[in-house]
């Protein structure tokens, strides 16, 4: 399956969860959706992990997952509010943790 096809399926999945919940006005914005489409196979890895309840997510995809804000995940998956935490958990079990926050400037 091509990356473009997976990106389209991910978009429909997001819209499918938005419309029944009455949140169609909160369709994911490009800053939330675009990073998932840039890494080849990332959308597929996420969909497989969500549908299987576990899975292997590659380092490049984990980097994107860890960089997306907590505001993005409910917009991408409003009926699955813990998606970001779940995916970050898979990444951390793979040894790919979020980057530490930058030290405050004096």
Write a short abstract of this structure.
By secondary structure, this protein is mainly alpha-helical. The chain is built from 6 helices and no strands.
Number of strands: 0
Number of domains: 1
In DSSP terms (H or I, runs of 4 or more residues), the helix count works out at: 6
* Helical amount: 55-70%
Helix-strand category? mainly alpha
Query: Hey, roughly how much beta strand do the residues contain?
Result: under 5%
Main sheet attributes: strand count, strand direction, barrel closure: none
Mean pLDDT: 75
Radius of gyration: 14 Å
Give the overall shape. Answer: globular
Please give the oligomerization state of what you see. Answer: single chain
Poorly predicted parts: 18-24
Helix/strand order? HHHHHH
How far apart are the termini?
50 Å
